[in-house]
């Protein structure tokens, strides 16, 4: 059953990134009724932030569709191993790559490890991000600004550059942006700004890569119950999370992952530079 806002108790975590294993209730990353049909059979996907939240769900759904996956994460090893087990239980391989995506050298190493393990790369999912609650612009210092841009947008440049020599016609790149790129969010100023940059990156990158037969698209989730929430908000604010959208509840990762399947598969063969909006019914501009 999909959770509703009043079933989320007040909670917080004193680490960034937060751990999915310590969330109450646990996010729902898999729908047992979802049956794969080989849409990504024998493809290889690299997913940043694949240890938990949306990234974990994408890894599981890709495995259901026949793909092997490499997941990149910072230091949430237990969460990453849980994702790995879920993928392997579906009969696919899952490579764990731990490191800091703010470091360009690491991003290149992660891509190379994927190639060394699987022999190719078909799908790049730029999903990892960090987020901070900021009541005022005065709360944002240069260190935080540098960190959030390095994690949320610079890493997408790093991974895409590293992946390009290995991508071929039919490959796909999918970037996770946010509803906040369209609506803005006064209390998530730095995060929302990076997500706007990701939207521009997605649209701009898509155009020259069309000539290479590589499609670039994005997904802009609304309020989704992931480890982002207890580490960014915490306390009573968490129990109200998601009530602001027309559906009056937070979404689950499993409600977002099918968008990534669609954009990675031939079902979206006539789409490039576009963004899908699993956001609980909020109508946003193009």
Describe this structure in words.
The chain has 286 residues and is of the alpha/beta class. The protein has a single domain, classed as NAD(P)-binding Rossmann-like Domain (Rossmann fold). It contains nine helices and seven strands, in the order βαβαβαβαβααβαααβ. The protein has a seven-stranded parallel β-sheet with strand order 3-2-1-4-5-6-7, sandwiched between helices. Helix 1 packs parallel to helix 2, helix 3 runs parallel beside helix 4 and helix 4 runs parallel beside helix 6. The two termini are 32 Å apart. The N terminus is likely disordered.
What's the structural blueprint in terms of helices and strands?
Elements: E1 44-48, H1 53-64, E2 68-73, H2 77-88, E3 94-98, H3 104-118, E4 123-126, H4 142-163, E5 172-176, H5 180-183, H6 189-210, E6 215-219, H7 228-232, H8 236-239, H9 257-264, E7 275-276
In what range is the share of β-strand residues?
A: 5-15%
Q: Please state the CA-atom Rg, rounded to the nearest Å.
A: 17 Å
Number of strands: 7
Counting helices, strands and paired strands, the structural category is alpha/beta
Query: What is the number of domains?
Result: 1
Question: Reading side by side through the largest sheet, how are the strands ordered?
Answer: 3-2-1-4-5-6-7
Summarize the biggest pleated sheet: 7 strands, parallel
The total count of helices amounts to 9
What's the assembly state of these chains? single chain
The end-to-end distance, rounded to whole angstroms, is 32 Å
Tell me, rounded to a whole number, the average pLDDT: 92
> Which CATH architecture is right?
3-Layer(aba) Sandwich
CATH class: Alpha Beta
Series of H and E elements: EHEHEHEHEHHEHHHE
InterPro entries: NAD(P)-bd_dom_sf, Sc_DH/Rdtase_CS, SDR_fam
GO molecular function: oxidoreductase activity, acting on CH-OH group of donors
Organism: Lyngbya aestuarii BL J
Keywords: Oxidoreductase
């Amino acid at each position: 059953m999909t959770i509703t806002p009043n079933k989320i108790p007040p909670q917080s975590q004193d680490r960034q990134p937060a751990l999915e294993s310590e969330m109450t209730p646990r996010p729902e990353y898999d729908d047992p009724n979802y049956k794969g049909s080989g849409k990504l059979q024998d493809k290889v996907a690299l997913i940043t932030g694949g240890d938990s939240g949306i990234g974990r769900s994408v890894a599981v759904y890709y495995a259901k569709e026949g793909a092997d996956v490499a997941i990149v994460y910072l230091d949430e090893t237990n969460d990453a191993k849980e994702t790995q087990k879920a993928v392997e239980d579906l009969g696919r391989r899952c490579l764990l790559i731990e490191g800091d995506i703010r470091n360009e050298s690491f991003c290149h190493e992660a891509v190379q490890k994927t190639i060394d393990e699987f022999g190719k790369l078909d799908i790049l999912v730029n999903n990892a991000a960090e987020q901070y609650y900021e009541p005022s612009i005065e709360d944002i210092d240069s260190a935080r600004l540098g960190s959030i841009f390095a994690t949320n947008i610079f890493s997408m440049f790093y991974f895409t550059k590293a992946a390009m020599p290995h991508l071929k016609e039919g490959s796909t790149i999918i970037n996770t942006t946010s509803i906040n790129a369209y609506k803005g969010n006064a209390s998530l100023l730095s995060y929302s700004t990076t997500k706007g940059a990701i939207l521009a990156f997605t649209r701009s990158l898509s155009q020259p890569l069309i000539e290479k037969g590589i499609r670039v698209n994005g997904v802009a989730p609304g309020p989704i119950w992931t480890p982002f929430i207890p580490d960014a908000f915490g306390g009573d604010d968490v129990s109200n999370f998601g009530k602001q959208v027309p559906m009056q509840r937070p979404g689950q990762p499993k409600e977002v992952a099918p968008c990534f399947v669609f954009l990675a598969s031939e079902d979206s063969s006539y789409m490039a530079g576009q963004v899908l909006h699993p956001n609980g019914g909020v109508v946003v501009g193009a």
